[in-house]
Each structure stands twice: as structure tokens, then as C-alpha cells.
Design brief:
The chain is mainly α. It has 6 helices and 2 strands, in the order H-H-H-E-E-H-H-H. It has 2 domains: about 60 residues, Winged helix-like DNA-binding domain superfamily/Winged helix DNA-binding domain (Arc Repressor Mutant, subunit A); about 55 residues, Penicillinase repressor fold (Orthogonal Bundle).
Length: about 130
């Protein structure tokens, strides 16, 4: 899969599709109600763009068009994370954590989770 960059709105639609594909436009409009002011046409245009990017497939065999995610969420999350780190922190996870720690943006639970993750990562590397 090549790099696929998603706008914030595209992320929202892809989240719905990752959660429960396939969906009709009518179902997506309902899911967006109260959270956005998007109408059917806006969602249709975004889905068309996502199809062009290779992120969404459309099944036209039935009465209603069914939209499904055809990219893996984990892959897209990893790619977006790498791009964010490269763009904002020169690719350095350490700089990002230091920045968050400096702003006191890490809760005690976040710190414990990071310690646990790093400990597991270190143990895995020491075994090799």
C-alpha cells in the first residue's frame, strides 16, 4: 500500500467504516448527525475522494451503494504517526515525549503505560 493521507473529515468517515463496514451513505449521514453539519452530498464527495485514494471500495450490486474500508486501520495509523513525528519532531519519539512531559501533558497512567511498554520492548531486544 502506498502512503494514504487522510483529512480530519476522511478520518471520521473511515472510523465509521473500520468499525462497521459496509455502510450506505444514509447510514453515514445518520452517524454524523449532531457531530457535523455534513449532508448527503458532502459525504458522497468525501467518499468519492476516499475511493480515488484507494481507501474505500463501493459495492453497486444492490439497491443501495455499500461503502467499505479497503485499507487496514493499523497501517494508516502507523503511517500517519511516522509522518507526524517526522514533521513536528524531526522523527524523534524522545523529543515528542520530552515536549509532552515539559508541558505536563502526561498523566500518571500515561507514564506507567510508557514504562510498561518500554520495559517490554527492552526485554524483547535483550532476548535476541
Amino acid at each position: 500500500m502506498g502512503e494514504i493521507h487522510l483529512s480530519n473529515g476522511e478520518w471520521k468517515l473511515m472510523s465509521f467504516l473500520w468499525e462497521s463496514s459496509p455502510l450506505t451513505i444514509k447510514e453515514m449521514v445518520k452517524l454524523c448527525e449532531g457531530d457535523t453539519d455534513w449532508n448527503k452530498n458532502t459525504i458522497f464527495i468525501m467518499l468519492k475522494r476516499l475511493k480515488e485514494k484507494g481507501a474505500v471500495s463501493i459495492d453497486t450490486s444492490g439497491k443501495s451503494q455499500l461503502y467499505s474500508a479497503c485499507i487496514d486501520k493499523d497501517s494508516v495509523v502507523m503511517e500517519e504517526t511516522k509522518n507526524f513525528l517526522k514533521k513536528v519532531y524531526d522523527g524523534s519519539v524522545g523529543m515528542m515525549v520530552a515536549s509532552m512531559a515539559g508541558q505536563k501533558a502526561l498523566s500518571r497512567e500515561d507514564i506507567d503505560e510508557l514504562y510498561g511498554f518500554l520495559r517490554t520492548l527492552r526485554e524483547g531486544k535483550e532476548e535476541k
